[in-house]
Write a structure and sequence with these properties.
Length: about 100
């Protein structure tokens, strides 16, 4: 049974924007080799998580340190991907710090 996929949405998350952009480029190159129309990467708002830590517990409440984690996000839409494109996407070797989520829309 052959199922036709109309649109794939690839959501990428990562802490390092340069690794994220490299992964997006690899996905775009794989889609162009398979003659698939790709839109993106679309940057989504960066989520900042700020943690406030007391330097020394019990005394010196005014002495604090702030730490921040930034999560960068990108979305790539692939329209009517071919079987060749899906095969190359499965074989991609993306960086270790990148989280990839693929949805069939």
């Amino acid at each position: 049974m052959d199922l036709k996929i109309n649109k794939l949405r690839i959501a990428l998350k990562g802490y390092e924007p340069s690794l994220l952009n490299d992964s997006c480029e690899q996905i775009l190159v794989a889609s162009k080799n398979g003659n698939t129309k790709a839109i993106g990467p679309i940057p989504l708002p960066t989520r900042r998580r700020i943690y406030c830590v007391l330097r020394s517990p019990h005394v010196n409440k005014d002495a604090r340190e702030h730490f921040e984690i930034r999560v960068h996000k990108r979305i790539i839409d692939l329209y009517q991907p071919s079987d060749e494109t899906l095969k190359t996407l499965r074989s991609l070797d993306l960086s270790a710090g990148i989280d990839v989520e693929i949805k069939n829309l």
